[in-house]
Specification:
TM2, three-stranded antiparallel β-sheet, alpha+beta, TM2 domain-containing protein 3, 8 strands, glycoprotein
Length: about 250
């Protein structure tokens, strides 16, 4: 029994020594290794590394804008009757002025037209008179009007107008061109009213006041129509249209 008790005590001491050695190993060598291995992991978690920025470039949207000339172009109409803004034609310099000529034309993009058989067409031949746009008759173009020139003057005054060919008219050259025109605008004055005032109340300057000529009107008023002589002269001048409105416009 004594030997068994001694052996049991020895085993207890051995277990205590082994437990101490295992704790010492963990606190000294093994624990530091685990700490070193855990630090890079913690750093890798805390430090995500250099950040990369990505710029998202949106795709260019397909252009769906309709050209402005399309509004003037009738859809599915005859190509030969399209306005000039809807087609592009090759200039035929060999044509004779004033004579009929043929031109090779192409329909502009976004414009649809047909031929005589109602088939879609892009290239066609157009017949027109050989002449430049500035040689067209006055009924085929529109010009800007000027209100700063004198229409009643000798000689008649002219002004530089900007003219544009009408849409349905085809011609050679630029469709917008300058042209010298006679002053031709009205301010609303009636020739019949001015003449009637000159005959009836011309001695008091009523005709001159009506035409906007205040100085001449006051002169006739205080001179009683120039003792009648000025009145007779104004009747003749207004009758033939030599005396007109002070703003330089034409009579209605």
């Amino acid at each position: 029994m004594a030997a068994a008790a001694v052996l049991l005590r020895a085993l207890r001491r051995l277990c205590r020594v082994l437990l101490f050695l295992s704790q010492f190993y963990i606190l000294s060598g093994g624990g530091s290794l685990n700490l070193e291995q855990s630090q890079p992991l913690a750093q890798s978690i805390k430090d995500p590394g250099p950040t990369r920025s990505f710029t998202v470039v949106p795709r260019a949207a397909e252009s769906t804008d309709i050209p402005p000339y399309v509004m003037k172009c009738p859809s599915n109409g005859l190509c030969s009757r399209l306005p000039a803004d809807c087609v592009e034609c090759k200039t035929n310099f060999s044509c004779v002025y004033g004579k009929p000529a043929t031109f090779d034309c192409t329909v502009k993009p976004s414009v649809t037209c047909v031929d005589q058989d109602f088939k879609s067409q892009k290239n066609f031949i157009m017949n027109m008179t050989c002449r430049f746009c500035w040689q067209l008759p006055e009924s085929d173009y529109e010009c800007s009007n000027s209100t700063s020139c004198m229409t009643v003057s000798c000689p008649r005054q002219r002004y530089t107008a900007n003219c544009t060919v009408r849409d349905h008219v085809h011609c050679l050259g630029n469709r917008t061109f300058p042209k010298m025109l006679y002053c031709n605008w009205t301010g609303g004055y009636k020739w019949s009213t001015a003449l009637a005032l000159s005959i009836t109340l011309g001695g008091f300057g009523a005709d001159r006041f009506y035409l906007g000529q205040w100085r001449e009107g006051l002169g006739k008023l205080f001179s009683f129509g120039g003792l009648g002589i000025w009145t007779l002269i104004d009747v003749l001048l207004i009758g033939v249209g030599y005396v007109g409105p002070a703003d330089g416009s034409l009579y209605i």
